[in-house]
Amino acid sequence: MIYLKTPEEIEKIKEAALLLSRTFGKIAECVAPGVSTRQIDNVAHDYIQSNGAIPSCLGYNGFPGVCCMEVNEVVVHGFPSGYLLREGDIIGVDCVLELDGWNADMCYTFAVGDVSDEVMSLCRTTKESLMAGIAACRAGHRLGDISNAVQTYCEKRGYSVVREMCGHGIGKKMHEEPEVPNYGRRGTGPVVRNGMVIAIEPMINMGSRNVVIERDGWTCRTRDRRPSAHYEHTVAIVDGETRVLTTFDYIEEALGDRFI
Ligand code: MF3
Ligand code: CO
């Protein structure tokens, strides 16, 4: 069952998305060599709580963090830990918050200091594929058009698309129907319509698409241990228009010329 939202409800999700986007500005200020992923998680936790919101991931099926921390070969769902970021790492931070009963979801992969050109182009392509997916998200189109746009963009450039995890509907719950895969055929799947709110989140690997789950039951990494990148926006369809509710603007503001 896909819950369509009223314009008023979408305004509420937009407020959650704005706070989440600002949280990422704080996170961006904090990412640097020598910083632990737990420190970053604490910064996000403090900011979310002090603004009257709830960190949706914390305690979700027992997840032990406010954010998922995705260092290098970690695709999704890594735990915050004492790991100290190193020059040359990439770290995807994936966070969901709930404000006044409504959720927003966002992810950004940051470069830690100087990162190799090869890895930077993986990140850039993944981010661009999110934009390609959003461009394909239009009232009257099908979800498969979004999926296909992401897949084609990445595979043409030699990268592979993780199949096991998908984007999703979002609203009162952080995961709602429909699933939004990052691979698929045009003209298939549910029709994109007014009131839909979805999180689009390409998870793209430099090497093979295969992943494994670590023994902690959560941490998902590439089987070949080559790097993976992940970007995510929460998007709504209102009056036939596609609105991106989250924004990377606060990250850009924090990173200045280090923003890619
Ligand atoms: N954005 C992630 C997702 O859609 C959030 C996962 S939160 C967790 O799967 F608690 F499940 F880790
Ligand atoms: Co998500």
Concise structural overview:
This protein is 30% helix and 25% strand. It is α+β, with helices and mostly antiparallel strands and 260 residues long. The chain is globular and about 45 Å long.
The coarse overall form would be globular
Category by helix and strand content: alpha+beta
Fraction of helical residues? 25-40%
Assess the beta-strand content as a share of residues.
25-35%
H/E topology pattern: HHEEEEEHHEEEEEEEEEEH
Radius of gyration: 17 Å
Major beta sheet summary: 5 strands, antiparallel
The number of helical runs is: 5
**Spatial arrangement of strands, main beta sheet:** 8-7-9-14-15
Q: What's the number of extended β-strand segments?
A: 15
What ligand molecules are bound, each kind once? 2-amino-4-trifluoromethylsulfanyl-butyric acid, cobalt (II) ion
Q: Give the integer mean of the pLDDT values.
A: 98
Extract low-pLDDT stretches. Answer: none
Keywords:
four-stranded antiparallel β-sheet; single chain; 260 residues; alpha+beta; binds cobalt (II) ion; 30% helix; five-stranded antiparallel β-sheet; binds 2-amino-4-trifluoromethylsulfanyl-butyric acid
What does this structure look like?
The chain is of the alpha+beta class. It is built from five helices and 15 strands. It has a five-stranded antiparallel β-sheet with strand order 8-7-9-14-15. Strands 1, 2, 4 and 5 form a four-stranded antiparallel β-sheet that branches. Helix 1 packs across helix 2 and helix 3 packs antiparallel against helix 4. The longest helix has 24 residues, at 7-30. The site of 2-amino-4-trifluoromethylsulfanyl-butyric acid has 9 residues, from strand 4. Cobalt (II) ion binds at residues 105, 168, 199, 201, 232.
